[in-house]
Every structure is written in C-alpha cells, then in structure tokens.
Amino acid sequence: MAEENRTESLQICSASWCGHAFQVKFVVHTGRENTRLIADYWMPFPVSPSKTKSTKAPKSFSDPESHERIRMDHSSEKAEDYVEAVAEILKSKDECRVVDLAAFFGVSHVTVTRIVKRLVGEGLLETEPYRPIHLTTKGKRLATASRKRHEVVHAFLLAIGVDEATAAHDSEGIEHHVSPMTQRCLEKATAQLTR
C-alpha cells in the first residue's frame, strides 16, 4: 500500500486588533481537511487615546479611512524604496549615481532621473545634474525607518515558517503597509515565536 504524500503548511488563520490587544492565530494544514490550531497569541498593547485617532477597526473593507491609508502607503513606497537603495549603495560604494539605481531596480535611467527629481523636491535626496546622489537628513531618517520595518517583517515571516526566498520577496512589499503599532506587535510576536 503506497503511503500518501503529505505536506504541511503553516498559515496565519487570522490576525486582528481587538481593542488593546493584537490576536494572531496560526494553523497547520496537514492534508485535505486536517487542520490544527498551533498558536493563538494575544499580545496586549496599551494604546493612549491621545496618540491614536481610534482603536476600532474600520466598519468594512470599503471604509474610506482604510483606502485613504492604503493610498498614502502606496504614494510613499517609491520614496522609501529609493532612499533605502541609496543608503544600501552608499554602504558598498563611495557614491551613488543614477546608473547605480537603474541597475539596482532594473529600470531605465530616465525613470530613475524622474523619481530622483521628485525626491529632491520632497527634501529626501540632494544631487545636481551628472553628480552623485546623497541622502538628506530627512532621507536618512526615512531610509533607517524603512530598513527597520523591512527587517521586522522579514524576521516575522521567517519565524512563522516562511522560507528565506519567499520571506525576502514578500517583506519587500509588506513593509510599506506596516503601521508603527503593527510593527511593534510583529516584533513581540517574533520574539515569542523564536524563544
């Protein structure tokens, strides 16, 4: 009798903000309908009403506040990616040029030039035509915060069993949508999972 080929997969069953705690449920799927809950984390997180607009969840996925935050996250993605890339390139080289960013992102120098011009206008980068690109103080702060968020998401994905390649890829997109509160909760969950 041939043994059935079984694969297990770890998934987040649910993650929700419940007043003053973040609940994450992890399940393992071990076949067709065999599922078992392996972890149910409640991470209390005190929230000062003066520091947040509201602790209640949006009424629905079509809530305008949710979509406004997503639009803001999307609009800052390029800026975060570019300042993070400039910081990364400057770690390995003395200077960062348009050609370096074009190679880093796999895009044309025209695309990089357009985005760099926008980021200079936003006070994140400094450059002159045909000169190296530098981070402003504001750009350095954004690059550091972005790198930290990326590392937190990456570590969390590894802690829940996501393979390295997938975690590296997924954390690149997820990092832009992680609020400071969620970042702190992910750090706590990662610490609990990796004890």
TrEMBL record:
SMART domains, per the entry: HTH_DTXR (SM00529)
Residues in HTH dtxR-type domain copies: 76-136
GO CC, any one term: cytoplasm
GO molecular function: DNA binding; DNA-binding transcription factor activity; protein dimerization activity; transition metal ion binding
Alphabetized UniProt keyword annotations: Activator, Cytoplasm, DNA-binding, Manganese, Repressor, Transcription, Transcription regulation
InterPro entries for this protein: DtxR_MntR_Metal-Reg, Fe_dep_repressor, Fe_dep_repressor_sf, HTH_DTXR, Iron_dep_repressor, WH-like_DNA-bd_sf, WH_DNA-bd_sf
Bias kind Basic and acidic residues: ranges: 62-75
Principal localisation: cytoplasm
Function (record text): In the presence of manganese, represses expression of mntH and mntS. Up-regulates expression of mntP.
Family: Belongs to the DtxR/MntR family.
Protein name: Transcriptional regulator MntR
Name of encoding gene: mntR_2
